[in-house]
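Give me structure tokens for this 130-residue protein.
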Amino acid sequence: MKYRAIGENHLYLKTYNKGKKYVGSSVIVYVLKDLAANRLRRANPEKKKINRIGITVTKKNGGAVTRNRIKRIIREAFRQTDTEISIKRGYLIVIVAKYSAADKKTQDIKKDIEKAMIRLDMISPAENAL
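Here you go.
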């Protein structure tokens, strides 16, 4: 499933200010309930709620090549986490790369994202039954 990106700056700011936060060793994860989730669900061909994902990597992490590599790694780690532990739908999720993320592998960042989703109570109820 392709994820929908957060496109507006005000949604990033709202998620930073009002959302729940988890600080890991390589990423910081912010989560906030998406008020437009029902509208987006109706527009979705599968009629399912979706998460909107935002990935932030600053210039402190390196040049453009390094930043894009970090974004690809975070995107893949999130995708793997979503398929394995089934994350709740209808949320704004912002993942901010810390400076140490440049040296990390996909599996390291995946572990951080998994811990964040568990700590922020983002695992769907069906997964908790297992």
